[in-house]
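For reference, the entry.
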Amino acid sequence: MKTVLKYYKPYIPHILFVILFLFGQAMCELALPAYMSDIIDEGIVKGDMPYIWRTGVIMIVISAGTMVFAVAGDLLAARTAAKSARDIRHTLFDKVTNFSAAELEDFSTASLITRSTNDVQTVQQTTIMLLRMAIFAPCMGIGSVVRALQTSVSLSWTVGIALLAIVVIMTVSFFLVLPKFKVLQQKLDKLNLIMKERLSGVLVIRAFTTEKSEEKRFDVANWELTKLNLFVNKAMSFMMPLLMFVMNAVGILIIWAGAHLIEAERLMIGDMLAYLQYAMHVIMSFLFVTMIFIMIPRAAVSAQRIGEVMDVEPSIVDPAEPKKCTEPKGLVEFRNVSFAYPDAEEKTLEDISFVAEPGKTTAIIGGTGSGKSSLIKLIPRFYDVSEGKVLVDGIDIKEMTQHDLREQIGYIPQKGVLFSGTIASNLQYGKSDADEAAMLEAAETAQAMGFINEKANGIDEEIAQGGTNVSGGQKQRLSIARALVKKPKIYIFDDSFSALDFKTDKALRAALKEKVGDSTIFIVAQRINTIMDAEQILVLDDGKLAGKGTHEELMKTCEVYKEIALSQLSEEELERGRK
């Protein structure tokens, strides 16, 4: 809660003006019943038309003032709530984008989306209510009680009965509804998660004809959320009519009791009507306050969920006094590196040492779960090593800023990720000022020009969200081209050739050798023919370095590598491929 509240500090002057406007509105509304009483008892009863006109003009001016104060207060309250919500959303987005992979695993994507949208919206709506009513309602309520007692002490018991009835209704509602608010947000998280998974995996669902079971799973989550919403809404729907009944019943009671006092000449008609207005103000003010207390717990749940994200301290941070490489070359060295995922009992990588030099290709191969992708993710510092050091150009990457480190790296993941926009905007993602010639050259090197030329708009062709209008191989080639546009010193291909046919794979590797041959290249691959030409091949087995060397050396010295190679190609094919 405290984490969210600090985002309102810049808007304290706005809040003070809102308080001033709402106080003015309350004073104006409190003045009207007194003038109404005077216009009846002093003007109408005595037939004094000049007095009626004078008082009427004053009432019109006060009504206009009420409108001005109300509009100004509402507008400023809405602007304050909207701007603070904007700041919270911005900070949330910035926080999440700076999370390391370890922090992202603590929150589901669906939950982060819900916290950034639904929870922030709930806080924003509650802020408007608080700014609008938290000052206005108490001022109006206290002022109405004072003015009502000044008007007639004899009728004060009627308001007491009304407030007692309202307290009973609201207390019962609190105990029924408030515990459900946190559960409601959790159910919404679950529904969003299922929806996201179903939409992203719709082709797999259709391929396995599991539409009915998925619909059933969605219906269960949907119905759980619906039942909870129905319970809350039913409780609220019963509460409001009951409160309106109490308010109207008290109005009738005041008129009945007031009529007896008027008959006994202990009360004037105007005073009775003024008291009725004050009583309604007291009840309405109390209703507003109770509504605020209903909204605050729900907003507190949302604020707590927002705070849980904001209070997370990233495990990967920049050093206080970072070192900077003045002449980047791309030399990468692993010194006795061991790594274990957070909360994991066993190490994923253990005692890994090697040097990857500029102008040479370092390939990484191994069985499933051997730690290939884990190793490669340590270079851009997606995770921090548990033991040992990773150095780039002789500097420990922990002593560099993440920005400076990643500026030297072109990372191409196994699953090509494209963003909505155009082919050109995706290619410029790594270098925003890249011109068309640089983009076309990168696309040519990545063997992407063939399908780009087939597009009606060339590199200005639209890319759908997630790149759903291009194939897997085209995604990979565009991802490679995006990294080439950046022209980094270190290239990391994390199994980035898996969706390419052998011919395209071979042509792409030859083009890379020609265009970026002076850079340090890492290739994680499953196919032997993709890595055979690498100057250095690292063989991982169960997180350990089982072998290191060229293809010919490993075929003689590393049984793990030889087994992988012979499982894919015959000895004759291996020999022909090498030639």
User: Anything to note?
Assistant: The chain has a mean pLDDT of 84. The two ends are 67 Å apart (CA to CA). The first strand starts at residue 332 and ends at 339. The chain is about 65% helix and 10% strand.
